[in-house]
Amino acid sequence: MAGRSRTIPLHLQAWTEKTIPTNGFLLLEKSTDFSFGLNNPGDIIILKNGVDEVDRVAYGNFDDGDTSDNAPAPESGESAGRYPDGKDTDVDSDDFIIFEVPTPGG
Ligand SMILES: [Ca+2]
Ligand SMILES: [Ca+2]
């Protein structure tokens, strides 16, 4: 699948009651915190602070210019996450693994 360009801004200011503890996580849940979906075969998530990009992850077959280093796309019932927690080499295939049992928020 060729990469599609779509931008859905998700403004964290809307969740001023949410805080991220040191070495913690921010869990955002579809239907509660946002309504859009991510494409199962591949997509990209970009975290920005204003206009400044903080980090990004492309997974599966999303064409970000180099699909060979994308994070794996989870199958139904699985999830993808950083392993170990917080690992960020900016090579998504090195930073993310598949978890057979999803662990939301952990
Ligand atoms: Ca890539
Ligand atoms: Ca990164």
In spatial order, strands of the major sheet run 1-2
Shape: globular
Average pLDDT number: 85
Give me the strand/helix succession.
Answer: EEEHE
Please explain how this structure is put together.
There is one protein chain. By secondary structure, the protein is mainly β. It has a domain at 42-106. The protein is built from one helix and four strands, in the order βββαβ. The protein has one helix at 92-95, and strands spanning 42-49, 52-60, 79-82, 96-99. The strands form two sheets. It has a two-stranded antiparallel sheet with strand order 1-2. The chain has a two-stranded antiparallel sheet with strand order 3-4. The longest helix is centred in the C-terminal third of the chain and has 4 residues, at 92-95. It starts with 41 loop residues before the first strand and ends in a 7-residue tail after the last strand. It binds calcium ion (CA) (2 copies). The site of one calcium ion has 7 residues, from loops.
Can you describe this structure in just a few lines?
It is built from one helix and four strands, in the order E-E-E-H-E.
Which terms summarize this structure?
106 residues, mainly beta, two-stranded antiparallel ribbon, two-stranded antiparallel sheet, 1 helix, globular, binds calcium ion
Annotate the secondary structure layout.
Blueprint: E1 42-49, E2 52-60, E3 79-82, H1 92-95, E4 96-99
Antiparallel strand pairs: 1-2, 3-4
